[in-house]
Design a protein that fits this description.
By secondary structure, the chain is α/β, with parallel strands linked by helices. It has 4 helices and 12 strands.
């Protein structure tokens, strides 16, 4: 995709996501800052924050678990290299709230490589978000789980392991697809 294509799809994706009732009613949203060719999230994060939503962003820990910090605008992000410099992420530069902070979220926006027609998400293989989902389950937290993807990344089937959990919705530039009956 060209830079213009990325901007257009990111704007469309943000527009679709902001229409979700789950995000309209949320007081706290756990999200992430997109990197590389992932669908852009900054416009969405800024709009949520402008609406008064508390936006939590992850910080990768050495064991691939995630700590969380509050998003205070693009200027509050730090560029952090992980994995011997192979992976660069944008993380919140402020106070760390601990891995359990995510359990306060009303909605969790998850990155992924693909989602299938059952709502199963394929991640990047590091297990960070598998830990987040397990933490939410242990805490009895039931936030809406939403994946942001391009249209071509919604596929017939992804590999599934015993610990994998389905998401509630996938948002693409062309629309929203729900799994199950949850619209909380």
């Amino acid at each position: 995709m060209t830079a213009d294509d990325l901007r257009e799809t990111s704007a469309a994706l943000a527009g679709r996501a902001l229409e979700l009732p789950e995000l309209a009613r949320a007081g706290t949203v756990a999200a992430y800052v997109s990197v590389g060719s992932e669908p852009g999230t900054l416009a969405l994060l800024d709009t949520l924050r402008a609406r008064g939503v508390r936006v939590l962003l992850p910080a990768l820990l050495p064991d691939n678990d995630l700590d969380w910090g509050v998003y205070e605008g693009e200027g509050s992000l730090a560029r952090v290299r992980h994995g011997g410099g192979r992976m660069e992420l944008f993380e919140p530069s402020g106070e760390r709230l601990g891995p359990d902070a995510v359990t306060a979220a009303d909605a969790v926006l998850l990155p992924g490589l693909a989602v299938d027609t059952r709502g199963m998400r394929l991640g990047r293989g590091g297990g960070s978000y598998d830990r987040v989902l397990a933490r939410l389950e242990r805490a009895g937290a039931r936030p809406s789980l939403v994946v942001l993807l391009y249209d071509t990344e919604v596929v017939e089937q992804v590999p599934e392991e015993a610990h994998d959990r389905p998401v509630h919705a996938v948002v693409t530039p062309s629309g929203v697809r729900r799994f199950g009956e949850r619209t909380r």
